Fold this protein.
Amino acid sequence: MKSKHDDEIKALLMYKQIPPVDEEEKRELVHKLKAYMPVSQAAPSKIMQQLIQKAFTSIYRDHKIELFVLLTFLLLAYSFMPASDVWIVIMSTSPIPIFLAGWHLLNGQSNDMVELELTYKYTFHQVLFSKIIAIVAWNLGIYSVALLYLLGIKNMDISLYFFHIVILGLTPIITFSLALLLLSIKYRRETSWTVVILTWIFFVLLSLQTPLGTFLIEVNVLFYVLLNGSLVLFLLHRLQHLWRTERLSDGIL
Amino acid sequence: MNEDSVLVRAILQGDEEAMEQLVYRYYDEIFYYINQIGAPYEEAKDITQEVFISMLKALPKYKEQGHFKAWIYRIAYNKSMNHFRQSKYVTTLSEAHEEVAEDDIGGTVENQSLVKELLDSLPQKQSSALILKYFHGFTASEIAKVMGVSLPTAKSRIFQGLKKLKKRLKEDEN
């Protein structure tokens, strides 16, 4: 039941007295806010598409000779090597496009360059995202062409063995894509990529000279399927996170 | 689509006139609100400026759901609370209104001082909820959004605030 105080309190609380506001303050604020106006941008999906296209063509423009040489080398190797030994070539060469493009990516990412990129229309994270996608796409493209050629030249059946080889070759591609992404975000040092390449060369030599290679090929294909699946999920998660990372974080909400 | 969302979209496309309209639409009430919840006149001006700068920075991340007013008030509430925490000094409502009260004339003084005194006697969270409801016309669910609490908590703050005020008025009568 309403008491007589209810109306009294509400009437009192609804009593308004606006403190005088200086109009000059508002004009000054409007002038100041012009410096903070958002830059007009297209929809994220459109930006993503544009950036990936640009990164894709830029890799072709900068590395077409190296990529052509690599593809020719692979096709020649597949033509003359016995089918039973071809797996080591597939496994050891599959991540080469990533090494190549990764080298240039990390080389151009000194902290000064990142600072400069932060002032561009696109954020550093958006640019990095598109470059990583384009590098992986180029790598998978070359890998697919080489495998299709292998299928044709060696008259190999699409058997479990072939599937095993394909999955085995995908493992370093996904692993080094992830490594490139994490190194680009965290370290941005060219030397870190040199260490990665040297580690891979050492690993390949070890596989050739010791029973490690035979052991790797004998591991059940399900293991590689699960490993690659987990790595792809992690890579997608990191890429998604990278795209969402905003340039400015004022933490007001 | 309400007018705020039209202005927000225009601002996101870089329309400076829309930004000016939005500032003129909300400046007074945001400034008044910050002043009411305890910031002295000069500090309230600075905080209001910070609120609009933060609003503009965060605008690309703002998801339009027809609650722009509640959103900007929430920025104002958070900015004010941060300011109070940093300065480790919470001005009483009476102090905050002191400068304004000096300009009061005639019969308004009595009412105003009574309102200030009543709100001063409440915990800050309850007085903030009452200020939002009775001075700025927010509903309980909007108050919950502004203060970042659940709807029952917002309702409880309003209810408790009113209950204490009623008790206070009864005491004064006796």
